Amino acid sequence: MKPNFAILSDLAYSRKSFVVKKISRSSFSTDFHFHKECQLVYVVSGSGVRIIGHSVEKFEKGDLTFVGANVPHVWYSESEPGHSEALEAISLALYIDSELFCEQMSGLVDVKKVQNFFNESQRGLKIHGEKKALVVGILQEMLEQKDMHLLSSFLRILVNLCDPAELTYLNAPDPISTYSIQPHGRIPKLMYYIHQNFRDDISLEKAASVAGLQIHAFCRYFKSLTNRTFSEFLNDVRIGFACKLLHQSDLSITQVALECGYSNISYFNRCFKKINKMSPKEFRDSLETRNRHKG
Q1: What is the tens place of the pLDDT at every residue in 184-204?
Q2: Of 169, 194, 228, which marks where a domain is finished?
Q3: pTM across the whole model
């Protein structure tokens, strides 16, 4: 299931850094897609399956999520118990051109914190608790606001989202990109090597050699940097790639396992479930459920 690139006409041909709108349709079912704008979505009515990055979850009325720039996503409607058809799909959406916003604000305030939030939001976020109620209330007010009142409400939402309390990440960070940008000379070299060779059997000795360290020193250094053993980290990379293949290809689960460097399918299944809280089959079944409702 390869995502399609989408252009948001409300922002593409203007200098607006954000727009809020109410969307009412008979169904949430759309193409699996991505766009350069971030997106805050509140589900007013409807339920089904939500896919953000590698995360596949059920959603229902009251769901509030934030999708970072260029993250593949989609909401698919399903009928609820007691209903033969899916309920009307109604949502409130706030679209943000994060690059333009930071450019416009950089001369007024330090935008480093909000830039960090936008970067982290590529993992996808679910908002809950009192923060959800507050953000939804502001979002509803924005539908009727203009000019400075609208801008003020938008900034209030950003202030709340930049506070990590009552936010849950939907996806683990990409381990290679996270650590390859650290200012340690040996780490970018090691991450590049892992990226190129993770399908093969990379021994601890080889990894230590690439990093230019003795094995015991490498183990201590790697654990202090990533909070994982090298074996755990390598599994994270492989399973992350497996999720992409399950999204974007029709390969069987066995073929996916082999493509990711697992010759033991049972071990692949255990690793996948440990990281994603569901088996590869359950993950693919969720996608097949999406296809049935789309059809």
Answers
A1: 567 767 877 888 899 999 999
A2: 169
A3: 0.65
